[in-house]
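The data are quoted verbatim for reference:
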Amino acid sequence: MARVSSIITNFRAGEISPRLEGRIDLQKYNEAVKDLSNMIVFPQGGTTRRPGTYYAGTTKDGGQVRLINFEFSDTQAYVLEFGNNYIRIFKDGGLVTEATTAITAITKANPAVVTANSHGLSNGDRVFIASVGGMTEVNNREFTVAGVTTNTFQLSGINSSAFTTYTSGGTVGKIVEITTTYTTAQLSTINYAQSADVLFLAQQDHAPAKLTRTSHTSWTLTDIDFTDGPYLDENITTTTLYASADTGSVTITASAALFASTDVGRLIRFREVLEVTYDEWAASTSYAANEFVRFNGHVYKQVTGSTQTSGNTPPVHTSGTETYGSINWEYRHDDTGYVKITGFTSSTVVTATVKEDDGGISVLPHNIVGSSNTTTKWSLGSFSSTTGFPRAIGFYEERLYFAGTTDQPQTIFGSVSADFENHTPGTEDDAAINVTIASDQVNVIKHLLPARFLQLLTTSAEFTLSGGAGSEPVTPTNVNVLRETTFGTGNIKPLRAGNSTILIQKGAEKVKEITFDLDTDGLLGVDLTVLADHLARGGLTDMVWQQEPELLLWFVHADGRLIGLTYDRANATVGWHEHSLGGSGVVESITAIPSGAEDQVYLSVKRTIDGTTVRHIVYLKSLYFNDDVTDAFFVDSGLTYDGSATTTIKSLNHLEGETVTILADGAAHADKTVSNGTITLDRSASKVHVGYGYTSSLETLRMEAGAEDGIAQGKIKRIHGVTARFFQTVGAELGPDTSNLDRLPFRDSSMAMDEAVPLFTGDKEISFPSGYDNDAKIVIRQTQPLPMTILAIMRRSNTFDA
């Protein structure tokens, strides 16, 4: 006996809710899709084809890079290309260059010689050339400068003999580049936190640094010169230290082996017990020249030049020299002073420079100067090549926090409040914070993430740092650290999406959603990959949050696939989809910056072209486009020509020798192969999109339509008709499997044959060529560079009970 059912499948991310004409209430998963390849699930219902990627440039010398976002504002946002010992900057879809110089000539020679009067370039500079007339082969390309004269330079390694003759115009600009010491192997472990125009960087093999932007083309990378700290605990051994002088460059001598060559750059802090060392200032007391006193925690030196008697007013100033009665008192220091090691002599002797404290005073306590004034009250700096540098960094409550050094993997170092580079220790509320997690196992802190509390994400567990009860701000005396969950995380920087923390678990195959749970008054973790665990199998290596125009989490798979997660908790919408880039592109890094009404997602994509490994920097085109089909961009690593009608499309050098897919004036064009950076169209067109083609497909799960004696699973079924509901779509194939697909007609006899097919919104009725089987699946595919959005699939079927 056959049971006839009609099912409407409305596509929602991860929980496609069926509406059945029948009495059987089915589980939601039975109407979910099995595979979404290059399709994005809409939170509001439906699936749409992933937009293409637009070519922005190549990495320097094709090397592997890490992309990091830098956002000062919605209009001043950059993508930083971190490569082997360098940083370059992308903005508005291209590399940032210094002011350009007009080109007046380019020779056809080996190498090509460019004339640009007073160009100011030097040999080895990397430059970008654009807008050249005639010799278009050099347009939108990066070159290395050689053979420099005042008005000319060579394009190193470029033989332009066969290029088109130069006619006019063009500009050349030096690419902005910052030199670093980060190697390729270290790029994935760079951690960062931004405040206004400064990006603070942490990496376990490097001193903490800051990248400062002072203008669009002016960037500076420097190590952070910390003010007074942070430090290890004060010495409790019998080892003593003394200094050769109290200011300037000094020699520090230890009574036992203490120093290593890797201590260069490390801080040493000295402390005096003022009450033991100095008499307190007193009124009506005789003080000799050069005599020291203390008052209110400060040390002063009598510098009048002769013995004098004090009056009734004590010295209270904290810098310079001031007169009180008949005595000139010079402020010397409080109870501490510190130095920075500049040279290593032996395990007991180093040279150092006396540093200014936060009051601008650079002087050591005088009772640690000289071999007769040794002290055991000293502390070594926490950050050094000896002890390791922090790997985690984050802002919280007006403090900049570091954590996770090699020797102190569970210690958190918080700056002085609102003074990010100052770690002066103390017990005042605004003093620096230094606290170590107390736990039953070593938990290396990998990341710090500000939220309701500061989240400490470690290799084995997740903790929160707060000021104790209620909403008290954190101070040195009320730090409260609690273990919340026990998932653990790796090197991939977690992020905040809405009010949740998203982290990739330490095994790299699970994505965890960490949210605050009111019932437990703590953090709660949910495994997001349980909805599609096969997509993360093999490991995830990077991720980013795209908030506009849809709520999407993007992940990079270890095999180079782009994985998407529609993530809209407020509407209970969570669903996965995967994307493979055209031309077998392998995604290696991802980031996003605001750009108008959308967040612009940038990718570093590795490809092999003509036997050479290259890496394209591309960005996803807008998810939404105008109603005009000519604006649809569905090619990868693509470019757009928009101008007078032509059959010749140039400046495609990054796709040299590759077979490309073309959309010409809104209509699919036959594929072409790029030669000398050029393709020739079969027909003229004024708006042309060119790039790698890719396929988008959707496959439903096995049908569940109910049966007379229960469910339809395991029973013979047949789909005999399908209605697909499309939105702004042109071109699609539909059938029971990838080997049996029929192309749906979108052009009818009323349409002009010399114009592109307009975008279609509505239902398409399809006679379905399905046989009898246990699965009864539907596959919809798009292979043309055209849009496809599916809102619903209505299928009419038979289930055979006998």
In short: Residues 1-32 have pLDDT under 50 and may be disordered. Helices lie at 274-277, 533-536.
